[in-house]
Write a structure and sequence with these properties.
6 helices; mainly alpha
Length: about 150
């Protein structure tokens, strides 16, 4: 099989093979990362249970505790956009991806802004944990295996 020249489309079987190999690589990467992701979720669950117990003991709402502090700024940016430099304390210090995702997804879900923000944060945290696992595995594990054999 020859490579397509400039301007030509690759053969259909090449595209489908690439898609299949990408799906296989993604599934393999997920299976490899699954123990690390389960560990992350377990630690996160312990933290959320601790937060829930603390909120119950103090009479606070867990969702309000999770979205307080910087969460107030992010929710306001998601709802109203950035304020520019008009205030003494500007919201321009906050990276725009997270509030824009929340603002874009909130109308598409039955959740409110606060629950959508928490869901986006949870998915982003899982993606970050997977990414950290992948970097650690690619940088550390093969080196250690090579040294021990």
């Amino acid at each position: 099989m020859t490579a397509p020249t400039r301007g030509q489309q690759p053969p259909a079987e090449t595209v489908s093979q690439h898609r299949a190999s990408f799906g296989h690589r993604l599934a393999t990467a997920f299976r490899n990362a699954l123990p690390a992701l389960v560990g992350y979720v377990a630690v996160r669950a312990v933290g959320l249970v601790t937060l829930w117990l603390w909120a119950r003991a103090t009479g606070a709402r867990p969702a309000a505790l999770l979205t307080g502090s910087d969460g107030v700024w992010y929710l306001r940016i998601a709802r109203d956009g950035y304020d520019g430099y008009a205030r003494v304390q500007s919201d321009m210090a906050f990276f725009p991806l997270y509030p824009r995702l929340v603002g874009a997804l909130e109308p598409l879900t039955p959740l409110g802004a606060r629950a959508t923000a928490l869901a986006v944060a949870a998915v982003a945290a899982l993606a970050a944990a997977w990414g950290l696992f992948a970097v650690g595995r690619s940088r550390w594990i093969p080196t250690r295996w090579a040294e021990s054999s």
